[in-house]
Amino acid sequence: MNSNQDAVVPSLTTVTTINDIAADVAAEHPLVLPTVTESAPFPGRDPRLSNKDLDPLAHQRWGSYNIFAFWMSDVHSVGGYVTAGSLFALGLASWQVLVSLVVGILIVQFFCNLVAKPSQATGVPYPVINRSIFGVRGANIPAVIRGLIAIAWYGVQTYLASQSLVIVMLKFWPQLAPLAVNAHGFLGLSPLGYVAYAVLWVAQGLVFWRGMEAIKRFVDWAGPAVYVVMILLAVYLVANAGWDHVSLNLSAGKPLDFGASIPVMLSAIALVVSYFSGPMLNFGDFSRYAKSFTSVKKGNMLGLPINFLFFSLLTVITASATVPVFGTLITDPIETVSRIDAPFATILGGLTFVIATVGINIVANFISPAFDFSHVNPQKISWRTGGMIAAVGSVVLTPWNWYSNATAIQYSLGILGALIGPLFGILIAGYFVVSRQRVWVEEMYTMSPKGRYWFVNGFNPNAVWATVAAGVPSIASVIIPTVIGQAQWISDYSWFIGCGIGFVAFAAFERVRPQIKADAQPEPAAA
Q1: What angle do CA 318, 320, 325 make, to 5 degrees?
Q2: Are 363 and 215 in contact (CB under 8 A)?
Q3: Cα separation of 471 and 280, whole Å?
Q4: Is the distance from CB of 105 to CB of 113 less than 8 angstroms?
């Protein structure tokens, strides 16, 4: 997405995956909010704003392990593996890379705790909680923006996982190699590529179609499965290499002095946050299922700093061992297992990493657009229908062509991705600063002009203008440095630019011309 990331990340695969895609937060005092009840119709609830998927949850059952497993699926993917390994190739000392990883993931944890609070407290998904910020109609603005981003990245991630599946297939059936040549394909993808893409497309659709409980069970299993395979892979490679031949320092290029290393460390920190920017914005869609905010915070602690650091160290050990074993550094786990002269190890490792990538794709890029598109027309578009719209759209966009064209990624996905920051900043400012953590649940389901969240014809002009005020510079931070060929490091921080400006702009607009009224306690939701 950011052209200057080539200086930080060694491959376009990593760039594509990173942009897919990611604490001390709100006051610990109890939040005064409506009770989450059965989703029986509220008095005066408008059907144009409601269906069983968008209504407040009847029961919130997820514990800290389910949140932990969610983050395991986000981290334990091919993209997460390559990303962690790539940070050790920045010319930094190992301790500097470790500091960058820890600082970056702590920032992610902080923001995830923030964005989790409103959805967990009300039991509603991201597009619905935005009605209290953007208005009951205006909430479709962030929903559509987020949905478009997710469609694009859903396709790209499915393609990346399908390419890994192709490698495994060719390992066992080398006679299929002619079918893997793009020249024999259609619209830029080989026949075997289409087969692999279709297999994963259908597999993801089947898991999604079975509902959130099936997805939860899949995620609960997928993350730990990758740990088992990675530990076995690391033990195998270290045993073959000998511990004395394994170096934990993967730094490449000329060593940097302390002064020169600071901006590189900051870029590495921004890279970690960028990788998780999508899951961060989407996290409310999952925190709504948690039985308490304490469970969310505990799950985030286990799943982010602790899990991410352990996974990163395991990644480094595995990647380091590939040098003495295979004679070259390999940061792609699928390629690593494909080089092992053991069919069982290849199929077990390859399919496990493919499944893990499917897991992150479902939780990061499938569920969220399902809510987003359902939100546009709740009575005609169910959650499942919304998800299938995203799935079909991902094919129509032919993501394999975007992946192979850095310019297309820069000017399409990059521009959309730069809007993630503003949407995040506006939501946080609206909930914590302007609304002071007060939400009237029933008011988010009425189209009455007298409703609290009707604002101006259903739109909060402050939120709309804050999106523009933050979106323009964040997009410009991606485009202008590329066009002029200078200061390209700025685009590494597009998320921070958009988030910061969105937060400040919305808070300022509401102070000058208030639209959100937080002058009273919210009333309990009707059963």
Answers
A1: 85
A2: yes
A3: 18
A4: no
pLDDT of 192 over the 70 cut: yes
Nearest to 112 by CA among 143, 150, 74: 74
The answer to whether residue 494 sits within a structural domain is yes
Could you give the C-alpha distances from 420 to 84, 150, 226, 403, 482, in angstroms and in order?
A: 22, 11, 29, 20, 20
SS3 200: helix
Tell me the whole-structure pTM to 2 decimals: 0.81
Is-contact 113 43, C-beta < 8 A? no
One-letter amino acid at 131 equals R
| Residue 181 backbone class (left: φ over 0; alpha: ψ -120 to 50; beta: rest) | beta
**36 within a domain of the structure (yes/no):** no
- In sequence order, which residues have a C-beta less than 8 Å from that of residue 59 and are 6 or more positions away? none
Local confidence band at 331 (pLDDT 50, 70, 90 cut-offs): confident
Distance CA 410, CA 94 (A): 30
Contact assessment for residue 305 and residue 107, using Cβ atoms and an 8 Å cutoff: no
Q: Can you tell me the distance from the alpha carbon of 220 to that of 235, in angstroms, rounded to the nearest whole number?
A: 24
Q: Is 247 helix (H, G, I), strand (E, B) or coil?
A: coil
Residues whose CB falls within 8 Å of the CB of residue 232, separated by 6 or more in sequence, listed in order:
none
CA quadruple 311, 314, 320, 324: dihedral positive or negative? negative
| CA pair distance 509, 37, nearest whole angstrom | 34
Give Rg (Cα) of the chain: 23
Place of tokens 């958009």: 498
Q: What's the full length of the chain, in residues?
A: 527
| Domain assignment of residue 447, given as a range | 49-512
SS3 at position 292: coil
Alpha helices (H) along 180-245 = 191-209, 212-241
Q: What is the DSSP letter of 182?
A: G
User: Which residues are registered as beta bridge partners of 186?
Assistant: 189
Helices (H), 123-211: 126-129, 131-134, 140-172, 191-209
2 lies in some domain? no
Asked whether the beta carbons of 412 and 16 are under 8 A apart, the reply is no
Q: What is the mean pLDDT of residues 87-104?
A: 76
**Given 3-state DSSP classes, what are the helix, strand and coil percentages for the chain, each rounded to the nearest 5?**
70, 0, 30
Task: Report how far residue 19's alpha carbon sits from residue 270's, in angstroms, rounded to the nearest whole number.
Answer: 11
CATH of the domain at 461: 1.10.4160.10
What is the spatial distance between Cα 486 and Cα 495, in angstroms, rounded to a whole number? 19
- The answer to whether the CB of 391 falls within 8 A of the CB of 154 is yes
How many structural domains compose the chain? 1
Tell whether 520 is covered by a domain.
Answer: no
CA 130/CA 38 separation, integer angstroms = 21
Query: 249-264, pLDDT tens digit by residue?
Result: 666 556 667 777 788 8
